[in-house]
């Protein structure tokens, strides 16, 4: 390939053909020619750098891709996906890109199943979400218990009357209510239960606990009446004398006199 004609040489040749000596324009052309030479050298170096850089980038990309390819095959071999990586080539081993393969995990042996005897499941216990709190029954007073007993007597509910009077004696043993409850228990046994023996026991207890009580005359008179009808003559006479001694003007005085007269 022929070298390009420089501008300075062309102008100089044209001047010589005309017979003219080199002038200022010719010298200017020579300066331009020097600049052009420098530019051409610079362009040549630049192209060389671009070519070398491009080759370097291409080689680096090839190495990265090769390593990525090797990593991908190693990862697929490590995972239990059934993929088997092909054998490494001699070229890859020579370049050092081949990595040690991860050994496959050993399969766990299936546990032996023991014979289990079927048994019924345990009963399910349901936990209570809330505790049921019962409102405590208000404590009845002596007046309330006495009213309950009287209502039960009027309705001829023997057990309810007994229960109310017994609770009255237990909770209020030293008051007037206990005295009245003792006497009423005798009347409940005689009037509602028809048990004269039990009634006489309660009247006798009343006389022992309250010998001068407000129901003493009635209690002694009922004891006298029961003994006169169902007891012996000696017991009836003893009850009559006791009655006359404590209640000479009592409602059972006539009965007491008849018992004492009969004994004579």
Shape: rod-shaped
Low-confidence stretches: 80-86
| Spatial separation of the terminal alpha carbons | 186 Å
Helix/strand order: HHHHHHHHHH
Total of helices: 10
Question: Averaged pLDDT, please?
Answer: 75
| CATH-level-4 superfamily name of the largest domain | Tetratricopeptide repeat domain
Q: Architecture of the largest domain, CATH level 2?
A: Alpha Horseshoe
| CATH class group of the largest domain | Mainly Alpha
Query: What structural class should be given to the helix and strand makeup?
Result: mainly alpha
Integer tally of domains: 2
For this structure, the CATH topology of the largest domain is Serine Threonine Protein Phosphatase 5, Tetratricopeptide repeat
How much β-strand is present in the residues?
Answer: under 5%
Helix content: 55-70%
Number of strands: 0
Please give the radius of gyration in angstroms: 68 Å
Largest sheet: none
Outline the structure in words.
The longest helix has 55 residues, at 24-78. The protein has helices at 7-18, 24-78, 90-95, 142-154, 158-171, 176-191, 196-209, 216-230, 233-246, 253-263. The radius of gyration is 68 Å and the shape is rod-shaped. 64% of the residues lie in helices and 0% in strands. It folds into two domains: 7-78; 142-263, Tetratricopeptide repeat domain (Serine Threonine Protein Phosphatase 5, Tetratricopeptide repeat, Alpha Horseshoe). Mean pLDDT is 75; it is low at 80-86. By secondary structure, it is mainly α. It contains ten helices and no strands.
